[in-house]
Queue: 2 jobs
Job 1
Amino acid sequence: MSYGSYLDLGRLLSSQHPVSKPEHHDELLFIIQHQTSELWLKLILHELLEARRLFDQDNLGKALKCIARVKAIQRTMTEQWSVLGTLTPREYAQFRGFLGNSSGFQSYQYRGVEFLLGNKNRGMLRVFESDPEAHALLSTLLSEPTLYDSFLAVLARAGYDIPVDVLHRDTSEPWVFHKELVPVFQKIYESDDTPLGFVRSLRGPGGRGGQLPGVAIPSPPHRAADHRLQGGYRWIVGGRLPQTCTGPDVLPGALCRPDGDRQLNRS
């Protein structure tokens, strides 16, 4: 056993294959930037799937640890784009034409993270019909409960009044706002008997952002309750952006805009 053999560095470091002719100096940056993003997405999927499994076992503490790790990864992914920012548009245009129709929209792992967090889109499966492994993964995640569905099930088993139609919703459909959940979360915050783990799930340090990454708590329609429940957040994945964008609580790829009424955009 050696460092290089354990990490399979021979294969890893020979996996960059520029296609520009003559080879453009900056294409290696572009490749490594996206390869490292895919490695982080692989770990995000790994942690979110484990967190969902732990929720299903009512192991809230370990699930939250997985989710905290996901948030740290999200922060790292956001910050690492500063490296790509050293590539000017002019330099990018000099080799972009060699990449054909390839696009970040074709990242099946990114779509897998979206599906796990509630932004499901059956039409996306068509994009990956030529990739059986990716298609199989996304088909599975499309039909399975989201991380948030599993968390709501934890609350239900703990005695909170989660509506039956929410617990048994069609999990292949994207998550939508359920106003009947608002009083449930009001009870969680207002009761002195609420277990600390549930409070930590919904509020981060200083009362801002929940442990559930970039998702989760359905936003109530009125701003006062919104502030109390989510520290200013009023969005779910596939829905609205937060009033104030705080990097680690936003999925990589989301464009942060100060106007919370604008729809989520991706590039």
Job 2
Amino acid sequence: MLQVFLLAVEGEENKNKFMEIYLRYKNLMYTVAYNILHNHEIAEEAVQDTLFKLTKYISTIENVESKRTRNYIMIITRNISFDIYNKEKKYCETSDDNSVYINDEPFTADILDYVISEEGYKHLLEIIEKMDYSFKDTLKLKILYEHTNDEIAELQGISKRAVEMRLYRGRAIIKELLMRECDDYATK
């Protein structure tokens, strides 16, 4: 089965990278999928779907051993597993289809300067890490991995509109939390 995936990967360097990812993360992918799906066969299907997605984005992965790559693979596996779970349970999310997209308001200069700083960037990642997985994964794919909205939609198995709404809502949550922190700091 692995040979089928390798046929989809172009270039010897990317094939080697894909093999290394497979060997290093196959158990992690399975564990993540099984913890969501609670079924051996379906978890293996989720791992195969994850590997298929990775064939498309293998060139974006720089360091196979990095925490960033591990998180990236976990995000993809988790999203695919939830997608399979929802299809198995015939569950459909209606909130994304009924949402109205509102243009994102820009951050204030003070907040933007803080987020741009290294300390602010780390704090931003801490805030994102505490968010609900749908916002967290979408924001990470956008901010850390610099995927386009179309790529994020494909990776998460949702519409581009849902990606835009998650990014909008996620940014609004971050902005609100940062503004609250600034207010708390100013009153001390």
